[in-house]
Design a protein that fits this description.
Blueprint: E1 3-7, H1 14-25, E2 28-31, H2 32-45, H3 52-56, E3 65-70, E4 73-78, E5 81-82, H4 90-99, H5 103-119, E6 122-126, H6 129-133, E7 139-144, H7 147-160, H8 167-183, E8 196-199, H9 205-219
Length: 220
C-alpha cells in the first residue's frame, strides 16, 4: 500500500488540500484531526476538559468514534450521531488540542489510524503522521502558512458559515493552538526530518492543491 503523510499546524488548509489531492490520486483521504475533534466534542459535552484523568474518563466502552465514507467523503460519527459539522467550531478545535495532548486518547486512536493505512492506499493528514503514526510513509509533506494567513482563511470560513467572530480572536486562538500543539509532551507538532516543506502563505487554494499533487507525484 502507498501511504502519504501530510502534517502541519491548524488552519494550514490540510483537510481541503489533502482531500482534493487524494481524490486526484485515487487514494482514501483520512483527516485524523477529525478523530481528535470528535473525542474533544465528547469530552466537551460531558464537561470533562479539565485534567488528563478527567479526559481519560470519556474513553469508556460506551464511547463510539466512527469514521465512515459517503461518496468518498469522510464523515465522523459520535455514538451513532453524525457530528461532521459539530466538530468544526472554534470550541471543538480547542477541545481537540486539549484531548490530543492526553496519551490515552492518542493510544485510543492510534490503532485505528494504523489499521486504515495498512489496508488502503491513503493520504492521511494531522499533526504527527510523518513523525509517529506513519514514520515509513512513502511521501511526507509538512504543509504550513503564516499564522496571519491561516487566521484570515479560518475567519473567512467561519463568517461564511454564519459565525459571529472577530479576526483578532481567530488569530489569537490560532497562535495559542500552535503553541499548545508544538509544546505538548506527547507527539508534538514538528516537521519530520525527511518531510518536504510546503508553505502556502502567498498562494491561493487551487495553486496549493496543484503544488501538493505535483509534489506527491514527483516523490512517490
Amino acid at each position: 500500500m502507498i501511504n502519504i503523510a501530510i502534517d502541519g499546524p491548524a488552519g494550514a488548509g490540510k483537510s481541503t488540500i489533502a482531500r482534493k489531492a487524494a481524490s486526484e490520486l485515487g487514494f482514501i483521504y483520512i483527516d485524523t484531526g477529525a478523530l481528535y475533534r470528535t473525542v474533544g466534542v465528547a469530552a466537551m459535552r460531558q464537561n470533562k476538559l479539565g485534567s488528563d484523568s478527567e479526559i481519560e474518563s470519556v474513553l469508556t466502552d460506551e464511547l463510539s468514534v466512527e469514521l465512515r465514507f459517503s461518496d468518498g467523503i469522510q464523515k465522523m460519527y459520535l455514538n451513532g450521531e453524525d457530528v461532521s459539522e459539530a466538530i468544526r467550531t472554534p470550541e471543538a478545535s480547542m477541545a481537540a488540542s486539549k484531548v490530543s495532548a492526553v496519551p490515552a486518547v492518542r493510544a485510543y486512536l492510534f490503532d485505528l489510524q494504523k489499521r486504515i493505512a495498512k489496508e488502503n492506499n491513503c493520504l492521511m493528514d494531522g499533526r504527527d503522521i510523518g513523525t509517529v503514526v506513519l514514520p515509513d510513509a512513502d511521501v511526507k509533506i509538512f504543509l504550513t502558512a503564516s499564522p496571519e494567513a491561516r487566521a484570515k482563511r479560518r475567519y473567512k470560513e467561519l463568517v461564511e458559515k454564519g459565525s459571529d467572530v472577530k479576526y483578532e480572536d481567530v488569530l489569537s486562538d490560532m497562535i495559542k493552538r500552535d503553541y499548545d500543539d508544538s509544546h505538548r509532551a506527547i507527539a508534538p507538532l514538528k516537521q519530520a526530518e525527511d518531510a518536504i516543506l510546503v508553505d502556502t502563505s502567498d498562494i491561493g487554494l487551487e495553486e496549493s492543491i496543484a503544488l501538493i499533487i505535483r509534489t506527491i507525484k514527483e516523490n512517490i
